[in-house]
Amino acid sequence: MNKIKGNIADQTLCPVARAESVVGDRWTVLILRELFMRMHRFEEIQAQTGATPQMIAARLKKLEADGIVKRRVYNKRPLRHEYQLTEKGEAFYPVILALRAWGETWCKSPKEGRAVTYTHLTCGKPAGLGPACESCGKPLHREDLVAEQAPKYRREREARWDAFKANR
Amino acid sequence: MNKIKGNIADQTLCPVARAESVVGDRWTVLILRELFMRMHRFEEIQAQTGATPQMIAARLKKLEADGIVKRRVYNKRPLRHEYQLTEKGEAFYPVILALRAWGETWCKSPKEGRAVTYTHLTCGKPAGLGPACESCGKPLHREDLVAEQAPKYRREREARWDAFKANR
DNA sequence: GCTTGTTACTATGATTTTCATAGCAAATAT
DNA sequence: ATATTTGCTATGAAAATCATAGTAACAAGC
């Protein structure tokens, strides 16, 4: 079995170390990103993250063990599961949002444009990068956000899916 | 040389993937935590993270290459450097804060208590877990926060330092 | 009833990273 | 001259990761 290693967790009071022992891994975070984008199937996650099936399987198993993800049967015969965020998983959203804000601001050239833009349902206007709405100033919650992918980003994701489907 | 691998970065518009190619690693995040706690020396970072010197050295080198950390000479003879956050590094604070909030809330039993509590200078009251001040509601900025370590956490860190100094 | 397709993985062996342990260099302090 | 401090680098074993291939369990079409 694949352990991702996380035993500092029980030896420190530091919440950052505790959190990192659960999500301190690139694939894990990318999987969570996909789940937040409502991709629930193994295949979709594999295609969009580019990780090997073992990487995905190991991470999902650990995420489930850590109470962040739950499996749900969506088809009985053949038995098929989909992956969903638990309450603990949903609560991770602010981290993803902060990571997105930092990534958009500091890891891209301005002319590239945003991958996703959010509209704040509460006020009907652009939400910006958070954590507070750039239009109305209120704190952003996931359920009040409508995401729109930039055409370029949508094409990028479609291309990845097509490429994945093509060679199998 | 030690590459941490980060080339998805240039192939996707996704800011989360971009960010992860830079900070998607447990040691990297723990190093950043230490820098935010104003530990600037190699030794201190090594002692408090528990990583091997190569891990620290490789991560610091990459963080410097990625513009998140800068080295500063604090002693000429013998030549000694300390590590500081750049503007890009400082901008990462909201991610650490969000990670802390999630870790405190979901990765600890309530009776363990907080590792660090923040007072919000703007209103003089407890800041809570953010991103907005739990007392006055305003968004939290690092420069307006005064951190106080819980005695238990302070002792934990002192013990780690002593243990590190002891065996070398 | 046999081939093809779908989905979710598991198996395998090479490559790469990480870990534990030790050591070095360039000074200062004693 | 010897010990100590600080910031690393070297080495080899152990573990994780990667690319590639394959399996299982069924459904659907011919």
From TrEMBL, chains A, B:
Annotated InterPro entries: ArsR-like_HTH (IPR011991), HTH_HxlR (IPR002577), WH-like_DNA-bd_sf (IPR036388), WH_DNA-bd_sf (IPR036390)
Q: Which UniProt keywords apply?
A: DNA-binding, Transcription, Transcription regulation
Respond yes or no to whether keyword Transcription is given for this record.
yes
**Location of the HTH hxlR-type domain:** 14-111
Keyword Cell cycle carried by entry: no
Q: Which Pfam families match?
A: HxlR (PF01638)
Which PANTHER family does this chain map to?
TRANSCRIPTIONAL REGULATOR, MARR FAMILY, TRANSCRIPTIONAL REGULATORY PROTEIN
User: This chain belongs to which protein, by name?
Assistant: HTH hxlR-type domain-containing protein
Q: Which organism is it from?
A: Bradyrhizobium iriomotense
